[in-house]
Design goal:
By secondary structure, this protein is an alpha/beta fold. The chain has 3 domains: 62 residues, no CATH class; 48 residues, no CATH class; 175 residues, Rossmann fold. It has 11 helices and 11 strands. Strands 3, 6, 7, 8, 9, 10 and 11 form a 7-stranded mixed β-sheet that branches. It has a two-stranded antiparallel ribbon with strand order 1-2. A two-stranded antiparallel ribbon has the order 4-5. Strand 7 and strand 8 form a beta hairpin. The longest helix has 19 residues. The radius of gyration is 32 Å and the shape is flat. It starts with a helix and ends with a helix.
């Protein structure tokens, strides 16, 4: 039987879900919402939704419905105000916790993202969800009475000690049987995301914040598609290096950007730790749109075509609009890989461009 409170909760969740869909762009582009993430939950501020509730106060006598009064007479204890009526909306705020899995579903529905078909699977040993096996050893709390009794009965019959006229069966230690969780080989789809970002002076704080927000929602969607997701952060320089998440989004260096150094390190990381036979691989590259030189761009194209593309699901490149970037590297990639589905490039003009770029990157279900 469905309780009325359950129906009310379901209706409220539907309202919340609809409100999130209505303002999805605002929530996705807001960096402060990411700061309120928990382990599996994220708090979303939803304006103008307020649950009805009783409010208790002191009854000091008088008021509406008590005693004589004339139409328009002020309620005792309240004086007419001097202010004028306003036309703005009142602000009623409510923070709602929503799971990252549910948020990923909403993003997937709104962007019409197809479920990803994993290209690599690996078999791991996993424990079954229920006790499906019988063992000769185990704790007394898991002793299987029926199996133990049958084993003791078989032993007594075989040894000739069982008396049908006095059918007493006494299990011995070797008769005890116990339930246990059996293990089985189960394929598990795993993915790794390799983020590369220009950290030169031309990538300002706002550009890095846009990349940070986009990376969070890319991770959120991919985690809904894979059992295991690992993330690697690479910053290009004369010699690229792997860094932690905090350094990746806060490091700032002077000088230009040699993109090929990041691609070379990305290739080494893939070959050393994430074989394509076992991992789905997603390199994402963000920059202001320029490379060190045209010769280095040629090296990047060579690395992508000959070594990286055959091993990955896709290569995504998003230049973030900057006052200093020309966008030439994107144009070079578009020319070099025209007609190649595994290379996706899209401009990110500002925070409103985050959702369209995610759709462009992941919209093919690779």
């Amino acid at each position: 039987m469905t309780r009325k409170i359950d129906t009310d909760h379901t209706r409220f969740r539907d309202i919340v879900r609809g409100k999130i869909k209505q303002d999805l762009k605002k929530y996705v582009s807001a960096g402060e919402m990411i700061g309120r993430q928990g382990k599996r939950l994220v708090s979303i501020p939803l304006p103008q939704i307020e649950l009805p509730r009783f409010r208790f106060g002191k009854n000091q006598g008088g008021g509406v419905g008590q005693g004589d009064g004339q139409p328009g007479q002020p309620i005792p204890g309240q004086e007419p105000g001097d202010g004028e009526a306003g036309e703005g909306e009142g602000q009623h705020g409510l923070e709602v916790d929503i799971t990252l899995e549910e948020l990923a579903r909403i993003i997937g529905e709104e962007l019409e993202l197809p479920n990803i078909e994993p290209r690599g699977k690996r078999a791991i040993r996993t424990r079954a969800g229920q006790f499906t096996g019988i063992s000769r050893t185990g704790p007394q709390s898991l002793r299987h009475f029926k199996r133990t009794f049958k084993q003791a009965l078989k032993r007594q019959i075989a040894s000739g000690t069982y008396d049908p006229d006095d059918p007493i069966v006494i299990p011995m230690k070797e008769d005890h049987r116990y339930r246990y969780l059996s293990t089985r080989e189960e394929p598990q789809a795993s993915a790794v995301v390799v983020y590369m970002m220009d950290v030169s002076g031309s990538m300002g704080r706002e550009q890095k914040e846009i990349v940070r927000i986009e990376a969070v929602w890319i991770d959120t969607w991919l985690r809904s598609q894979y059992e295991t997701l690992e993330v690697v952060y690479i910053v290009p320089d004369a010699a690229a290096h792997v860094v932690d998440q905090h350094t990746f989004f806060h490091l700032r260096e002077s000088g230009g950007t040699k993109i090929s150094s990041a691609y070379e390190l990305c290739l080494r990381v893939i070959e050393d730790k994430y074989p394509s036979s076992e991992w789905n691989i997603y390199p994402f590259h963000f920059s202001d749109g320029d490379n060190w030189s045209s010769r280095d761009t040629e090296r990047c194209v060579e690395l992508l075509r000959a070594s990286i593309l055959p091993q990955v699901n896709l290569v995504a490149y998003g230049p973030v609009k900057s006052a200093y970037g020309s966008g030439q590297f994107k144009r070079d990639l578009d020319v070099a890989f025209r007609g190649e589905d595994k290379v996706v490039t899209t401009d990110i003009q500002d925070r409103d461009g985050i959702l369209p770029s995610i759709k462009a990157f992941l919209g093919k279900g690779r």
